[in-house]
Amino acid sequence: MTKVTYHLPDGTMSKIEVAPGQSIMIGSVNNNLPGIVAECGGSCACATCHVHIAGEYNELFAEPSDEETELIAYLDGADEESRLSCQLIVGDFDSEVHVRVADSR
Ligand code: FES
């Protein structure tokens, strides 16, 4: 199980165990955390699951697809650490990951 700490827009944080094969978006939605809306349900079409994740975690996740990169390019507040959390699929590893949930309001 991977422990994902979500740093939420309101300044609080929440640590959730996310099972292999699940996305960081699902971990948030299943636990009713605020911030990740996930309007499209994870099909890389809405960008309402925007998070910032430090480069040190890059090797744990697949590279962003062209679609994801394009969607991020149109987001307010996007930076080099931006990812769409529905595309961050947790592997079968035991580690801790921190993400900062973008403020989508
Ligand atoms: S949930 Fe829509 S792009 Fe991630």
How would you portray this structure in words?
By secondary structure, this protein is an alpha+beta fold. It has one domain: Ubiquitin-like (UB roll), CATH 3.10.20. It is built from two helices and five strands. The chain has a five-stranded mixed beta sheet with strand order 2-1-5-3-4. Strand 1 and strand 2 form a beta hairpin. It is globular, with a radius of gyration of 12 Å. The termini are far apart. The structure holds FE2/S2 (inorganic) cluster. The site of FE2/S2 (inorganic) cluster (FES) has 13 residues, from loops. FE2/S2 (inorganic) cluster binds next to loops.
- Read across the widest sheet, the strand sequence of neighbours is 2-1-5-3-4
What is the averaged pLDDT score? 95
Assembly classification: single chain
How much helicity do the residues have? 10-25%
Cα distance spanning the termini = 31 Å
